[in-house]
Design a protein that fits this description.
Largest interface: A-B, 58 and 58 residues
Shape of chain A: globular
CATH superfamily of the largest domain in chain A: D-amino Acid Aminotransferase, subunit A, domain 2
Radius of gyration of chain A: 19 Å
Number of domains of chain A: 2
Oligomer: homodimer
Distance between the termini of chain A: 26 Å
Number of helices of chain A: 9
Chain lengths: 283, 283
């Protein structure tokens, strides 16, 4: 099941070709994207996702994001989705620099996709995660803007390769570290740790994305009396936490039960509490 | 003018959509490519380019490259190109992981494109180059294979952003450096230096591509009595060289006349000698 619509709101056959061979997404991974979780027609964090799409596009020097157009095409996909049989949908928004031999018009489309069975299983069972070196130091975001750190670009070959590598080692998830060992983020997730009733995530200026799901979770946790903080962490901090999660729009609050091959102490009650805080936001 | 053919040899309309919205190239920049220079129907370094395509695909864990199929589709594009009016062509080979919701068959196509006017001008006039930090240390290729260093992937958003950054600073070309200042490569070129009748380029194990054009040039130079070496270089080595070039299949042997805003001493006679060595390979 998939639903695809062009940015002008036209529904198209998801099996039919849509992109020209010279589209910059195909040729260069040159564009940006977002994945939004939709449950029974209700989007989660739509505004923050669209704001991040706009920030990513600006970092790539692309034409500004047409917010009303993206709102409309998202609604077109939501309206066409078979909610009776598929109550959850991932809504991908893809915005590329357009055809290289075109008139400069960017390409935009929205795609509704089912949540993979593996993602649903990981939500329930948790994952084994491997920390892998991302190769970057933590001081590059400001001084090397051409590295596009902080932009959610379509150039995700490394993110995919890191996940394949983890899978080849028997893990399901990756947590990237900087060259000095500082914890960064997952290839498609944000890292969250609980310790002594404080939730901590890693600072975007280290060279990572601002997490939309993490932000929603932190707001809910603060309202429930948790302390939250955005601070650099080491792998040791992850290993000695009371709870460790990789969070994202479609994987939600997925717990890490094993880190670098070592099982973490069971934290099921804490996991249920934190997941409950997040789910209550949308109840 | 463009000519596009699918890997099965079918010519298609270059203005028509070819890629499904869920193709991994569109979604993730997940695939590999080569750009081959063709002059009056004759390819240059076709074998080395195809070998590098195969190495890149292997590094990404993609199905093996079907060499006879790529040879056939390349010939289809060459046969369809209007050589009378366009004596030079760039032949792009694009090989992606295919549609995410497909049967696992990868996507392949070849595209003949004209050489951009700017590239032709830079061949003649040379370029101003800016050294930019690539953010990586030089020891990652072996110990972090998930970073795909040495693979020519479709995830080129950073390469494009670096070039745009250089252009915003009044330069035309980028030379990436490692985090310790070691010279790496251009976003789409290999760096070559001449000093005391020795040509030097940078070692691929530092985390860069093997250069097809550089390799052809070095073979020709050795045959003409030059010494060649593959050794790490610093930016100071570039600044104090007898000659400095960014070389690639379509830009050929393009000289760098200005480095980080400082004009280099004129080396026109040396440039003519080195360009002549390269062109003689295909005479």
């Amino acid at each position: 099941m998939r639903v695809v619509a062009k940015l002008d709101g036209t529904l198209v056959d998801p099996e039919a070709p849509l992109l020209r061979p010279d589209d910059y997404s195909v040729q260069r991974g040159d564009g940006v994207f977002e994945t939004i979780f939709v449950v029974n027609r209700r989007t989660r964090e739509f505004g923050p996702h669209l704001a991040r799409l706009a920030r990513s596009a600006a970092l790539l020097g692309m034409p500004p994001v047409d917010v009303p157009a993206w709102e409309r095409v998202s609604q077109v996909v939501i309206d066409a989705w078979p909610w009776d049989t598929h109550p959850e949908m991932g809504l991908k928004l893809i915005y590329t620099r357009g055809p290289e031999y075109g008139d400069g018009t960017p390409t935009g489309f929205a795609m509704g996709i089912p949540i993979p069975d593996s993602t649903i299983r990981y939500r329930r069972e948790g994952v084994a995660a491997l920390t892998l070196d991302r190769g970057y130091s933590t001081d590059l975001t400001e001084r090397a803007p051409w590295l596009l750190l902080g932009a959610k670009t379509l150039s995700y070959a490394v993110n995919m390769a890191a996940t394949r590598y983890a899978q080849s080692q028997g893990a399901q998830e990756v947590i990237f570290t900087a060259s000095d060992g500082t914890v960064l983020e997952g290839p498609t997730s944000t890292v969250v740790v609980a310790k002594d009733r404080t939730l901590t995530t890693t600072p975007p200026p280290l060279g990572i994305l601002e997490g939309t799901t993490q932000a929603a979770l932190f707001r809910a946790a603060e309202a429930a009396g948790w302390k939250t903080e955005v601070e650099p962490m080491t792998v040791e901090d992850l290993a000695t936490a009371d709870g460790l999660w990789c969070v994202s729009s479609v994987r939600l609050i997925t717990r890490v039960h094993t880190l670098n091959g070592t099982p973490l102490p069971d934290f099921t009650p804490l996991h249920q509490e934190i997941s409950g805080l997040y789910e209550a936001v949308y109840a």
